[in-house]
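Subject: mismatched residue count in predicted assembly?

I count 854 residues in my input, but I want to confirm that the predicted structure covers every chain. Input:
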Amino acid sequence: MRRSILFLFTIVISLNFCAEAQIFRSLGLSGISYSLSDPEVRLTPFGLARNPATIVSDEQSTYLKIIPSYTSEQGEYRRLYDPEVVSLSSVNFRGLKTLGEKGTFLGEMGYVYEYRDQVYRSIMKDPYSGESFFMTDTTKGNISYNGPQMTGMYSWYLTDGLSAGFSVSYGILSGLKSVYTYAKTIYRNAALSGGLAYDLTDNTMVAVKLAYGDSQESVEASDVNLLDVEVWDFVGETYTLRNRSQSITQKVKRIQYETSLQVYSTPVQGLEIGANAGYSPKSATFITPYMSFDELTLGYSQSADIFGEVYGRYMISENSTAGAKVSYNHINNWSKNNRNNLLVWEWNYSGLIAGAGTSYKLTEVPLLMAVEFETAFRNIDSSKYIDRKSITDNGADITLRTGLEYEVNSDLTVRGGYRFSQKGIDMQYGLKDVTQNQFSFGCDYYFRGGSILQFCGKYSNLTPSSSGASRSVWEGFCQIKLNTF
Amino acid sequence: MLKKLSKLFLPLAFLFVLASCMEEPPVFKDGEGKLRIMAYGDTSLVDSIPDYIPMQNAKAILTSEYGTLIRYTDNQGVLSLESLPAAIYNISIRMVHPTYSDRILVGNIRGVEVNTERVYIDSLFAIGITNSGLAISEIYAGGPINNIFYFYDQYVELYNYSDSIKYLDGMLISRVSGNNPPDGDGGPGADAGNDGDIDGFTYIFKFPGNPGERNCPINPGQYMVVAAKAIDHRQSVSTSIDLSRCDWEFYNQFSATDFDNPNVPNLLNIRADRTVDFLINLVSDVIVLSSGVDTVWSDGIDISNVIDGVQYASTATKIRTIDGRVEKGLALSPPRYSGQSMRRREPGGDTDDATLDWEIIPAATPGRH
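Triage response: the counts match. Full output below for your records.
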C-alpha cells in the first residue's frame, strides 16, 4: 500500500449526531438526519451539542432503552499500528425519567468489550491521536479492552424560560496485550459538563455549554516470567527512546475544555434552525517514570479546536421536509519535546462542509424517500520537524445518502439506505481519493403498550484508488425501548 | 433579562480566559541540529611529531539517547551532518591506517551537545591504536531465549589484535562485582584508595602456566572462546548454542557440582573461598583480563597488569564504576534471555571507551565476528 500521506495524523472531524445518539431511524436510512422529520433528530442544544440544560424541554416522556451493539472492522487498508481486525461489542442502558417540576434525569450505563487482533507493536489505545509521542513494544499481538461507562445528566428549570443542567460521566477500560510485554492498560475517562439555556423569545432559545474532560491512559508492560521488556517511546516517527526493565509504566494524561454556544429557533411555522459554535482546547502530557521515584514529562501536546455548525429544517408540507447544513472546523495542534522545549510537530486542519437534502412520503403507498448530499473542503498543513516531513494538502469530498422507508403495517416499519462517499482525503486512514460504499437497513416493531424493538445493520467498504486494499466495517445495533420503568 | 443574560455568559467568558492560558508553542524546532567535525588522524608510528592526515571516508559512530547513527566523513575528512534531533552525542570516528592495515586510527569526542540554534563545529584528532595486544571481543551473558531462566551458556571471547602470536599462560579472567559501599569504595572496578589498582574481584580464573611461558598460544586474528560450561547447551534449551568444542572452559575445582568437559582445557579458580561456578551477571557486570603477574587479588589487581576490562550495564544512565584508566564508558547490554550478545563493533576497535566500542548483536557469535 502506498505510504499514508497523513501518517500518525487522524482527526475525528465531527461525529454525525445521529450516530452518536444512536438514532436508529437515521442509521437505517444511511445516516440521513437533518432532512428527516423525526422527533428524535433534534436541532436543539441537546441534539446538536449534548447540552444538558435542554433535556428538560426536549424530553417529555419517560423511557428505558436497552441497546446492544456489535461492530467488526477488518481489511488491508489500515495504518501501520492499526489492528488487522477490530471487534467491538457493547451493551448500553439509557433511562430517562421526567420528574415534573423537579426536572428531568437521564442516566446511561454501559459495558464495552473491544478485541484488537494482530496489533503491530503499539501498546497505546490510540497511537493516532495527533500527538507526536506514543509507545510501542517489539512484538505483534492481540489486545483486548473492556470496562464500564456511565453518565448521569440532570436538567431543571431555574425560572420560567431559563433552564440549567449538568452531566457527569465516568468510564474505565482495562486492556491487556496477550503476548510478550503483556501490557496492561488502565484507561480512565471522566467528564463534567454544565449548561444554561434561556428562551430569548417564544421561538428562540440560546444556550451555553461548558465542559471539562480528564482522561488518563496508564500502560504497564511487564513480562510474566520476570524477564526484561523493551518499550520504545517514539518522538515523531523515526526517533525512539528505548526503555528496558522488568516492569515499565508510562502514562498519558489528557485534559479537554469546551465552551460552546447554541441557538435554536423556530421563526416560522415548520422551520427549525439550530446552531452550535465553540472553542475546545486540549492538552496531552506524556509521562515516563524517572529514577523509580519520580516522573518525567517527556512530551507535551496541545490542540485548539474552533467549530461552528448551522442546521436548518423546513417542513414543506405534511409529507415533505427539506434540510440544509453548513459547518466549519479548524484545529491547530502542536507537540513539543518537553525536556528541551523544542517543537516536534505542528499541524493545522480546516474543514468546511455544506449539505442539503429532502425527504418525501408518498401518499399512495406508505413509502418515504429521502436523500442528502454533502460536500466538504478540507485543508491540511503538517510539519513534523524532527522527521523532516512536511505535508500540505487539500481535497474535496462528496457524500450522497439515500434511503427508503416502508410501513408494512401499523406495527412494522422497514427501511434501507445507501451511502456513497468520495473522499479527497480520508481523514481516518490517510490516503487520498478514497471511495466509501455503505449499505444500511433497519426495522421498527411496535408492541402493544407502546414499546418498540428496533434493529439496524450497516456494511461499509473503503477503497483507496491508489491501492487494491480495502477496509470493511460491519455494524449491528438493536434497541428495545420501554416507555416505563 | 439583561441580568439573566449576564449570568448566562459570565461562565462563557471565564472559560475563554481559562482557555487563553494555554501554552504558546516553542519558537525553536527539534530536528534542526547541525554538526561539522574535521577529523584528523595521527599516522606517526612512534611517539614523536604527530603526522596528521584528514580521515577521508572514515566511519563515524554517533550514539545518543535515540540510539546509534552510522555515518561517514567526506573526501576532505569532514563529518557534516544536518537535521539531527537535539541530544547529547558521543562521537567516534575510525578508519584503517592508510599504510598499515593492522592499525586503526580512532578518535572520540564525548558529550557533544547538538542543539537547534547553532552549528556544532569541532576538530577531532584520532590516534593510532596498535593492534599489538589482546582484548575481550565478545561477552555473551544474557542467556538464550527461554522462560526457564537458563543462562549457563555464557562465554567470554578473546581476540588477538596483533600481528604476532600471543600467549595466554598465567593470564586471569575475572568477574569484578565487589567493592560496593559501605564496605567498599567506589564500586566494582574502582581504584579504592587510589593505590593504582582496581578492586572488587569476585571470581578469578587462571589460564594454565605462568606469565612468560609459551604453552597457550593465540594466533594473530584468532578468536578464543572461554565458556562457563563447555557443553552443547541446545540439549537443554533449543535456542541456545553449542559450546562443547570451544577453546577454553572455566572450571572451579573447588566446586562439587561444576561440570568439566575433559576435551576442553580449563581455566582454574585461584580463590579457594569461592566454590561456585564461574557465572556472570546477565545484564550488568565488570569483566577483566589481566596478565597474571599480579595475582594478589585481595588488595586489588594493578592497573598496569590489566590488559582489557569491560563494564556492561542495561542502561546507559548507569554510573560507571570501573576505573577510567581501564575503560572510559559502559557497554550497553542486551535484555536478559533474549539470545542477544554484545561485542566490539570492529575486532581491532579497542579505544578503552566501551560506549563507543561495543554494540549489541542479535545472536551470539562464538569464535567469529
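The mean pLDDT of chain A is 90. Marking this ticket as 'not a bug'.
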